[in-house]
Amino acid sequence: MMTAEQLKASILQLAMEGKLVEQRPEEGTGEGLFHQIQAEKSKLVKEGKIKKQKPLRAIDEDEKPFDIPESWRWVRFGEIVSFRMGKTPPREDLSFWKRDIPWVSIADMIDGGVVVKTKEGISQGAFEKKFGSLISPKGTLIMSFKLSVRSVYKELHADRETGC
């Protein structure tokens, strides 16, 4: 008998391989979608909203973990999204920590939630000097690898907080 976790993993694997639903030509191809994404990224570069990225190395056959439908295309993550690593202005420089621009930190993030309010803000100077005046627009997916550690820590110590 299959456990719930095994069923979930099986469904996810079938979806990644394009075997969960019928592939319909009228829905387009991975190649077409890739070109639409590239056009949008070019537009955003021209508008100064994102930086132009260096071309990425092609995916070799031995890197492909499984077969996908012919209408799909293997791509590297950086070819379809614009991503950058976050950074924090030095805490010791108080001139960077004003309420001019909302600053999203791990403390503002909730599991599966949407950030609507921040506890801190940075100054216009920090924005210009540390971030080159690039701001993440509304609707941006913000991920933190530290958040998962924090969540695990909370779960591991939940018994102490509740007295169990």
Task: Describe the fold and architecture.
- Keywords: DNA-binding, Restriction system.
- GO terms for molecular function: DNA binding.
- InterPro entries: Restrct_endonuc_typeI_TRD_sf (IPR044946), Type-I_RE_S_subunit (IPR051212).
- The protein is mostly helical.
- The chain has two domains: 1-83, no CATH class; 84-164, no CATH class.
- Helix content is 36%, strand content 4%.
- It has six helices and two strands.
- The protein has helices at 4-16, 30-46, 77-80, 124-131, 145-156, 158-162, and strands spanning 101-103, 120-122.
- It has a two-stranded antiparallel sheet with strand order 1-2.
- It is extended and about 55 Å long.
- The two termini are 34 Å apart.
Task: Characterize this entry briefly.
The protein is mainly alpha-helical and 164 residues long. 36% of the residues lie in helices and 4% in strands.
